């Protein structure tokens, strides 16, 4: 995966579903109708970003305390082979996007990855995800 591919993935979005009460939903629709937001999604994204800004310091402290990688972390086959050859194992902790290259075999992943904790999105082949299923926290 090239740097360009990784940057493209960073702009990808993940779909979530929320349930709102009818009154809240009506208020959202009213703000959209009055032109404050272009659509429901725009309002929800703005509200989430505002909450994340409100709690930015707590997020920063937690990332530091838990030794999380903030942003993108991509593991190539060469990366994992180097870990294996050094006799080490990874404890992957990412806030953002963690990805494992498509050419990484399930066996190499099992040999080199002790655990995976991702707050965000984890991308790997279905075979690698299945092999690591018991190690994903």
Structural descriptors:
single chain, 137 residues, alpha/beta, 3-stranded parallel beta sheet, elongated, Arc/MetJ-type ribon-helix-helix transcriptional regulator
Can you describe this structure?
The protein is an alpha/beta fold. It has two domains: 17-54, no CATH class; 59-135, no CATH class. The chain is built from seven helices and three strands. α6 links the parallel β2 (90-100) and β3 (113-123). α5 packs across α6 (106-112) and α6 (106-112) packs parallel to α7 (126-132). The mean pLDDT is 87.
Radius of gyration, in Å, reads 19 Å
In one word, what is the shape? elongated
Order of helices and strands: HHHHEHEHEH
Put simply, the count of helices is: 7
Helix content: 40-55%
Our estimate of the beta-strand percent is 15-25%
- The total domain count is 2
Main sheet summary: 3 strands, parallel
Oligomer: single chain
| Distance between the first and last residues' Cα | 25 Å
Poorly predicted spans: none
Mean pLDDT across every amino acid position: 87
**Class inferred from helices and paired strands:** alpha/beta
Number of strands: 3
Q: Strand sequence of the main sheet, in spatial order?
A: 1-2-3
Structure in a nutshell:
The protein is an alpha/beta fold. The protein is built from 7 helices and 3 strands.
Question: Would you spell out the secondary-structure blueprint of this structure?
Answer:
Elements (H helix, E strand, L loop, with lengths): L2 H8 L11 H12 L6 H15 L1 H10 L3 E7 L1 H9 L4 E11 L5 H7 E11 L2 H7 L5
Parallel strand pairs: 1-2, 2-3
Helix pairs in contact: 5-6, 6-7
